């Protein structure tokens, strides 16, 4: 039974990371189409994201439960150690949240951010659900499960597994463009440091969820500025209507006939 459970667990883990890899490649290759699909139907994108990440979270948790060489503690399902650095990092990220929120209220938004921002009440509810699903699910996948598989099953050093998980996490957000990837890279580095300092997923999940909620719910979409161009009135040449020239005939003057003065 142990061998069967281990095989099933290994198969689930391979399928999870294969699915993430395919999605990452599609995000790189079909970035413009993905952004257009997001903007056209945000509610569908939110629902698909919630369902996909939740299914991956359940499958990954099942794989950990079945695999004989993995435990819940290995993937970070435990309370943090309570080191003061954990809370320092958390406070730093919260300050960044406030700074980004204030900046995005004034500056221009990245195309990916603008496409993701909900417009209706229904979309906001779905965006809030996706914030929780992605905050919990992505931390479990890219931090907890990735590092546990890398160190416990593959035999990688913890630092190497952490770097690979961080790179995988950043590239998975390639659809957001270089500007978005830089921000995701900074955030992923902080999330990784939070996890490594506490060996718990609790703080990274909470901070990640708060970040997504601020970006999706606190930042309001702004209508695109419409630049009004003055109407160009084409000057048309005056239309000259040539009237026919009427030439009047000279008037005929009836002159009285002169009679001869000579006598008959």
Automatic annotation (TrEMBL):
Stretches that traverse the bilayer: 6-25, 45-67, 87-104, 125-142, 154-175, 182-207
Record carries keyword Heme: no
InterPro entries reported in the protein's UniProt record: Rce1/LyrA-like_dom (IPR003675)
One Gene Ontology MF term: hydrolase activity
Alphabetical UniProt keywords: Hydrolase, Membrane, Transmembrane, Transmembrane helix
Top EC class for this record: hydrolase
The organism's place on the tree of life at top rank: Bacteria
Domain CAAX prenyl protease 2/Lysostaphin resistance protein A-like: 125-214
E.C. no: 3.4.-.-
Keyword Transmembrane helix belongs to the record: yes
Name of the protein this chain belongs to: CPBP family intramembrane glutamic endopeptidase
Organism: Actinoplanes subglobosus
